[in-house]
Amino acid sequence: MKHNTIFSRALSLTLVLAMVLTLAACSRTAGPRAERILKMDFSGNTGFPAMYTTASNGPGYVMMSYMFDTLVWKDDKGEVNLLADSYSVSDDQLTYTFKLRENVTFHDGTPFTAEDVKFTFDYTSLHPYQWTATTMVKEVRVVDDLTVEIELKKAYVPFITDVAGNLPMLPKHIYENVSDPTLFTDKEALIGTGPLMLESYDPDTSVYILVKNPNYYYGEVQIDKLVLAPHSDSKEALLAGEIDAAAGMKYVTAASLKDTENMTFIEGQSIQVARLHLNFADEALAVKEIRQAISYAIDRQSIVDKAMKGSAIVGTAGFVHPDSPWYNPDVAVYSYDVDKAKELMASVGAVDTNGDGIAEYKGKKLAYEFLVGDKDVKVCEMIVSYLQAIGIGCTAKTADDSTVKGNISEGKFDIAFNRHGTFGGDPKYMACLATDTAGAIKVSIPGGKRWQSKEFDELFYASLQEQDKAARKELIAKCQEIVAEELPTLAIYFPVNAAVYNNTVFDGFYFTADGIASGIPFIYNKLCLITGEWKGK
Hints:
Blueprint: H1 2-30, E1 37-41, H2 58-65, E2 72-74, E3 79-81, E4 84-89, E5 95-100, H3 114-126, E6 137-144, E7 147-152, H4 159-164, H5 172-175, E8 196-202, E9 207-212, E10 225-229, H6 234-239, E11 245-246, H7 251-255, E12 263-269, E13 273-278, H8 288-297, H9 300-307, E14 312-314, H10 338-347, E15 360-361, E16 364-365, E17 367-373, H11 377-388, E18 393-399, H12 401-410, E19 415-420, H13 454-463, H14 469-486, E20 489-502, E21 506-507, H15 528-531, E22 533-534
Parallel strand pairs: 1-10, 17-18, 17-19
Antiparallel strand pairs: 2-3, 4-5, 5-7, 6-7, 8-9, 9-10, 11-20, 12-20, 13-19, 13-20, 14-20, 15-16, 21-22
Helix pairs in contact: 8-10, 13-14
């Protein structure tokens, strides 16, 4: 019996030893898991990627967002709670109560609490943040470690999308000792709660390398490292395997890879508008019928087809993108109609009296300088031709984009064409058409003169306070009707964005509905790195 026991123990020991040796052999054969490195193109140097030091553009915000989270965010379907587990709004629509997620920590292991939320709002009231204002906030109160109340001075419907979904939460234990965040570039400046942490940043090569946050509360990060770098030819870099995703290509270039093996082509709303600006200091341009004539005279579809090569959709008279849930499909439509345009011109006395091809209005020729960016020359040429056909003469003046934008903001133009972004999400972007005639919203009025509409201002102001979505949609619909009738600006087209990625390396990129945060049109939403799938070796 004793020998049997010894034998049994010896056999057991032999089996255990065999298993250990087998596992060791398997381990030597398989080796450690290869590091999952995702490489993507990027627009270039956006500065030190902390909240107050990153570039004031879309790429700068996106870079920062990998490290810093907001209370709410957006995924491929719409709004999702991020640092907030839930939120509610008081009956008077003035107080938002946020319940925070449990067990969230900053990158340095410090717990994230309601104190950090209060601190962030208090800090940004002293140090305004370039991406969103917090001036509508009256007071922030900590209820307990995971509950915070934010009381507004007056109702502001876009608060969730514009503020809670846009304002990065700062670590109190770090920033409470920072008097000037615009100069704070220590490594501690990058401690947030986001899915990635900065490993290195080379300002000379504009290369950013970020690594996985192993303790990310929202889900497992599906990569170990992210490399973001500019490439002179993103298409060739993608085909050569130098990068795995490209969002910096022109639409036509990206579309050329539609049928390429292992490549996924996606397109989405660019959150941009390309539009005509009219200086109302000119007596003729201040006449509604002449602006309507200009709208009828421009063949927008031809511009989309020829100048944009299909990489855009025709603009709407109401200034809201047709894919937006706020779009009013019943606004006036100005289909290309030269005869109708000439009739409208004649109805207000704008006619060519001497046969030189240029109409006169109250004795003054309708001849203007057309200010346009040097990248929009083809569009300019087409518009100049269309306006010439109805007796409006234009002399093109090209400049770089920053100069065009500067001249528009200062009123140094007759007619100008320009593209700009942040044109998605909440229809608060219609504020760019509002004036201060009703005290609705303060918008800087450029030199010269701009459109004034008390009715629009009152409706727009009411829309910022109307909590009932159906009622608010009706207010925005009426705003669009006024804009479509008055045409203070002419939306020529809405660009379409496109991107391509290698689906054998990583799959699951998407264009965020209404853009990342306040409307950034990239596929580089940080939640893609959580919900996507690593396919590489």
